[in-house]
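ok so I'm stuck.
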Amino acid sequence: MLAGNTVCAGLKPTFLVECFWPGVTLDAVELASRRARDGAAALRIEGGSVRFLGSWFVPADEIVFFQYAASSNDEVLRASRNADLPVDRVTASLWLEAEE
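replied:
not stuck anymore, here's the structure
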């Protein structure tokens, strides 16, 4: 079961960074995604476990979600701040593959 900022045992912890970003454009999201990827890679060089997985852009709501795999919420928050993302919150998440 997912509760707060913890993830079920046996599942790889993932986290969503939610950003309410008025006036955001696709170009800005693409740039921010590159910063997020590069920032996560830099933290791994320092011994961290954080990995940037990708982003979702919801233009109608001016919201962007950035997804990371990491061992902790704090590590994701650090990576997000280092990437200069407009972070509103970081939340534990689970990715469930669709069955075919």
